[in-house]
Amino acid sequence: MALRRTAAVIVLLAGIALGFWVVFGSPHDWAGGMRLLKFALGLTSLGMITASAWLMFPGSPDDDDDDDISPHPMTGPLDAL
């Protein structure tokens, strides 16, 4: 688990560094088709930050393997329509 969290922190810092470089760094003078590369690098930065959150906290409430039978939520009058 410690290795996974360490990897999450490394990916998070790399994503933040890439995002700062795209916003404040060299790509400002890129024109034409290179602007698409700048856009792709920005999306990659966001993807890395999202992936680091997934690495840090892999579970979700839907992934629970509990056999609890929770009551279904009550339906309202508009649910029957």
Short description:
With 81 residues, the protein is mainly α. The chain contains two helices and no strands.
Describe the structure.
- This protein has 81 residues and is mainly alpha-helical.
- The chain has helices at residues 2-24, 34-56.
- The relative contact order is 0.16.
- The model has no long low-confidence stretch (mean pLDDT 83).
Offer a few descriptive terms:
81 residues, mainly alpha, 2 helices
Poorly predicted regions are none
Fraction of residues in H or I helices: 55-70%
The count of DSSP E runs of length 2 or more, i.e. the number of strands, is 0
Question: Mean pLDDT, as a whole number?
Answer: 83
User: Termini distance?
Assistant: 48 Å
Q: How many H/I helical runs?
A: 2
Task: Set down the secondary structure blueprint.
Layout lengths: L1 H23 L9 H23 L25
